[in-house]
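Structure tokens please, single chain.
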Amino acid sequence: MQRLKGLTALALLLVVLLAACGGAAETEGTTVRLMTHDSFDISAEVLAAFEAETGITVEVFKAGDGGEALNKAILSKDAPLADVFYGVDNTFLQRALDNDIFLPYDSPALADVPATLQLDPQHRALPVNYGDVCLNVDVAWFDERGLPPPASLDALADPAYAGLTVVENPATSTPGLAFLLATIETYGQDGYLGYWQRLVDNNVLVANGWEEAYYTHFSAASEGDRPIVVSYASSPVAEVYFAETPPETAPTAAVVADGACFRQIEFVGILSGTAVEDAARQVVDFMLSKPFQEDIPLKMFVYPANEKAVLPEVFTQHSHIPAAPVQMDPARIAANREAWIQAWTETVLR
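Here you go.
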């Protein structure tokens, strides 16, 4: 009887192994097209290792910024331009779901992803990474003048900080939209425009996008004269990592007070209409796996969704995760986004 049980267990093991080999054989030589935004990056060796292990070739198709890429995915959903889409964030997630562009996939890798990041219970969009949009300050600028950096959103309206802040336009910039949402959540539907009017009165500068704000106007990264900019909580890490001689302390700092940051989460999904769904699932699993997740911080300067991913030392030393970032239901964002942006435009840019 004991020998029979052993043979039965062995037979079951062989069945599992044969099934696994069969799955690998079925995807051998398959090409999966990954559609994404222009900021996507991955180490060549990490991608090559996955391709060598699975026999799957991943073709990366960059389709513009996050909003532009999503628009292309929606407009082409009846004849998809790719098999997998990465880069829709929680500010546009509901739009993607309402347009039914993704197939559901309950990846086993989700077991290592916190439930707070899993915003779609049907698992059509699976979280890959997150980052927090926050105010960043030029530490030396404030030290030289003996002025304490702003510690909250309220401080930006103080006359002591007049003419010091540059933000991005929420109609043309993802960080700009995230910052607008943070102010809406913090000051309420009836109070956020009043807050923005106070910023206008305090000579806030509006840039079209993050690169313009950061590399043209932010004093720590350019010849600009604005020592406060809307950026990311992880931006100080990049300032250290890319320095010719890395400083002991970052030259910039993020303001991570409660309510001052908005949490952005980016998702991946399998596009409806793909002809290579099995291989596409393997690509999604790969993007949630430790090798890909541990590559994220120093390639895209955001945090991995996988809790088991180990952060590089420069991240643990120079980045701070807000204790209470602003988060908002994607359905609420979708229902109000255009009206909020229009009201903001009339208040700030009129």
